[in-house]
Structures are given as C-alpha cells and as structure tokens.
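Ticket 4471: requesting a sanity check on a complex prediction with LXAUTJHC. Repro inputs:
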Amino acid sequence: MEPTTFVLFGATGDLAKRKIYPALYNLFIRGKLPAAFSVIGLGRREWSDDTLRANVEQSLRQFSRNKPEDAATLGRFLEAFRYCMLDIGREADYLRLLDLVKAREEELGIPENRLFYLSVGPEFFGTIADNIRLSGLGSGRGWKRLVIEKPFGHDLRSARELNRKLSESFAEDEIYRIDHYLGKPIVQRLETLQQENPVIQALWTNRYIANVQITANETVGVEERAGYYDRAGALRDMFQNHLLQLLMMAAIHLPHDSSSETVRFKKKRVMESLELLQKEDVGIHVVRGQYAAGSIGGKPVVGYTSEPGIAPDSRTETFIAARLHIDNNNWRGVPFYIRTGKRLKEKSTRIVVEFKEPVKHPRSPNGAEPNLLVIEIGPKESITLQLNTKESGLDGSFKPIHIDLHAVGENSPEAYENLIGDALAGDPTFFAHWDEVELSWQWVQPILDAFGEDLVPLHSYEAGGYGPAESDALLARDGFHWWFDDKSDLKSNTNEGERYVCQTNH
Ligand SMILES: NC(=O)C1=CN([C@@H]2O[C@H](COP(=O)(O)OP(=O)(O)OC[C@H]3O[C@@H](n4cnc5c(N)ncnc54)[C@H](OP(=O)(O)O)[C@@H]3O)[C@@H](O)[C@H]2O)C=CC1
Ligand SMILES: O=C1O[C@H](COP(=O)(O)O)[C@@H](O)[C@H](O)[C@H]1O
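Returned structure tokens:
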C-alpha cells in the first residue's frame, strides 16, 4: 500500500472516537496500513499531540474489537499521530496545516499522497474542499482523496449543489462517499455469493423469485440525535442511502470477474430501472409511521414526540415501508419490499429472497414453506437457504431444513475497517458513486414531497412491535407477508428444523 498522510477533520469528535481510530488500529495490527503512514488530527480544541494520542488510546480501550494489549505495538501505532488546531472557516489555519503535512512527508521521506477524511457536519464539506484547493494542500505531487460521511444532501437539489461544490476541488474518482452498510462483511460478500455460485446466479431472476424483502429494524429510539433526526426522519436517515444501496447490491447481476466499474455501472442500471412514483401515488406504495410509547425488552419507553429535543407536534417519520419495482428483464413483476424503523421489537438487518412456489400455496397444510434465501447482515451474520424435506413417518408432511451457506468468521472486520482500508488502497467498489446518490435522491424526492404536503397518513405504532399494521397490509395485498416477524417464522434463526452447513464459494 502506498505511503499516505491521513488528514482527519473532526479528530476530536464522536465518530472518530467510536469508529475511525478503532478501524485504523485494527488495520494496523493486521498489517493493512501503509508502512509509512501518518495521521494529522484536526479540531478547534486546544489539544497537543499527546492529548490526541491519549484520546486515541482511550477510544481503542473502549471501542476497538481488538484491545491494545502490547504496549510496544500501541506505541508504534500512536507514534503516527500529530494534532493541529484548525478552524474550518479560517484560511490561515490551512497554511499551517500544509506546513505540518509537508514536514511529516519530508521526515518520513514519502510522496505527497493525501487522504482527507471529513468526519464533520456536512455543512462544512464545501468550505473544507475549497480551502484544501486554495491552500495548495490538494495540489501535491502525489494523489489526493476525499472521504465524506453521510448525509450527502438533504434532498435532490441540495445533494446536486453539494456535489457541484465538491467537484470544483475533487474529481469524482477522488471522492469516496462512505455508506457504512457497504462495508458490512456480508454485504461485501453478496457479489461473490452470486458470482461464484452458478446455481444462485441461475435462480436470480423473476422466473424463480416471488419477492425480495429488505429489513433494517432497530430497537433504539432517537437517542441523543434529536436535532439531526427530527430534520431527517427514517427516509433520509436510512432509506435513501443504506437501504437503497442494499437493494442495488441484491438486484445486480455480475459477471464472474467484475471490476469496480462494472459493479458501479450495474448498480446505476438498477437505479435507472426503478419505477418512479408520482407524488399523488406515494400513499399506495409507501407506509410511514412514528413510534408511540411502548416497551422494549420489558422496559417502558416514551413515544417519539416525548423524546428530549423533539417537538410535541413533530410529524417526522421513524418508520417507513415501501414497495418498489425494478422494470427490467430480470426483475419485472417481482416486488421489492423495504422497511426500516426505530423502537421496533428487535435489531435485525436482513434480506430475504422468497422463491416462487410452483405447486403449493405458502403455508399449505402439509407444512411446506416457500424456499427462502435469508441473508442476515446484522447483528448476527449468516446466509441460509430454507428448503423443504419430507418428514419420515406416516402423515407424509413436510418440514423445513436450513442450509448454512456462510461460515461466520471469528472477529471479522467491522464496516469502517473495510471501508477505510479500501479508501487507503484506492478501491472505490464499496463507496457510493455520485450517479447512485443522485438516482437515489431522484427516487426519494416524490416521497419527500408527499410527506411534506401530508399526502400520506402518519401511522402511530407502539414501541416494541414491528411497526404499523399498514406495513403488513402492504404485502398482504400482494399475497405475501414479512418473514420472521412472529416466532413461528423464526425457525431458520433457531435450532428448530434441521440445519446443514455447506461449503460454498464466496
Ligand atoms: N457519530 C456517528 O456515529 C456518526 C456520524 N456521522 C457523521 O459524521 C460526522 C461527524 O459526526 P460526529 O463525530 O458524531 O460529530 P461530533 O459533533 O461529535 O464532532 C464534530 C467534529 O467536528 C469538529 N468541528 C466542528 N466545527 C468545527 C470547526 N468550525 N472547525 C473545526 N472543527 C470543527 C469538532 O471539533 P472541535 O469541537 O474540536 O472543534 C469535532 O471534532 C457528521 O457528518 C455525522 O453526520 C455519520 C454516521 C455515524
Ligand atoms: O446510519 C445510521 O445507521 C444506524 C444503524 O446502523 P447499524 O449498522 O447499527 O445497522 C442508525 O441507527 C442511524 O440512525 C443511522 O444514522
């Protein structure tokens, strides 16, 4: 990996502490950081190099999956860190930063390869990009990369404006837009699961698939982010980015040796084929909800509008479910159902592919269930194929068997580790390209408009359940139901039914 200077805006903030330092440390101990590497942390706080290092060490002790046990290893890691006080709006501070970056590059004898990681609010992205250009930080003799966090815009118009602004200072292939769902290990394996397994590839069409369900349920509420969340809601916070990315990853068909360009091209094609909704029709395809008081894991929780910092008359959605159609030869006629919400019964992020039943209706009396491919993305990771077999005995009924297609890795890397490693290596495959982001906002915009004009009812749902009943009705109208919402469906997640572990390519 090429020698790099990692310039971290927001080094004193929460994301750096919880995700970025642990990711860098885990890359370091796995030997996945460049041999010559330095981190320049930035913030307004009056920290010294030692204060930064002490904070990094503290963050590793609290948040890293590998705790720093060996003092010498930790010392070598921390030695790479320098701190520079910088106010984002003050141009002179960038010149001081440039001096420090150059001094470090000379000290280490490394080329001017600079990765700028913006772990700060999106309102600062444009100013930082401008100042990187104006100060000369962005015109070194090596490469430059810009890593940015969501939210990428608040709607289609603001996303386009932000992109225009960034593109004055960085080319598209220099911009790495983090969507941490793309860094999750199982999501990264989806492409190979399909590519390396012709059986799955052959089944990946509307000929065999009845519907696809993408769920991201959370038990947490708005937490300490009332100010941000009440302006965003579930549609902007989860749906426009993470869930549409999962949809793209699930729906693409990839040739055997796909490059990152192929992956991005195919994802773009999926988004281009998504049927756009008219604002007036949003209520037919989209359900929105807001949590009321209830209980989670036996503990009472307040409703959304009683959360600290949320206005009592807020109409922000904390739940959304939608039915989408991809109008192309592979997926025409296959509904994709997507839902996400806060204060639901359990934390689970999964994709369920329900296969068509040639003969029997789902839940037919003899016990046969539709074949399912269940991709558990978190908090547990698994890929399971549910098939039917005949019960030995007299009644001849069927029972489901489950074939595990994914060996769960011990201590597998976290999303940020994968993504920061990829950004350092210059691999853009698992970052969101502007085309995808723009098409996602384009798809979401009529829904934002319909919500804004109150054309869609806001259903209240009790905390601790599975969201409003209208979300079930959305699927019931098509003759389907959400899988795994009640205990009887949880067979594939428990020991009920026989399980087989398979060797697969992925
Ligand atoms: N925290 C999380 O889990 C997640 C965060 N994000 C995104 O990451 C970004 C950072 O979030 P988070 O770390 O939580 O935010 P914090 O509020 O914890 O940190 C903000 C950081 O920005 C710095 N900062 C703010 N204003 C200035 C300024 N004028 N000049 C220089 N530095 C400034 C602060 O430094 P100082 O106070 O020293 O000036 C601080 O380091 C946001 O865009 C957020 O949406 C995305 C996903 C998850
Ligand atoms: O980006 C976000 O994601 C989290 C959920 O992430 P996960 O990895 O725990 O599934 C969500 O809680 C948060 O609101 C959102 O901003």
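Notes from triage: The longest helix spans residues 226-251. Leaving this open until the requester confirms.
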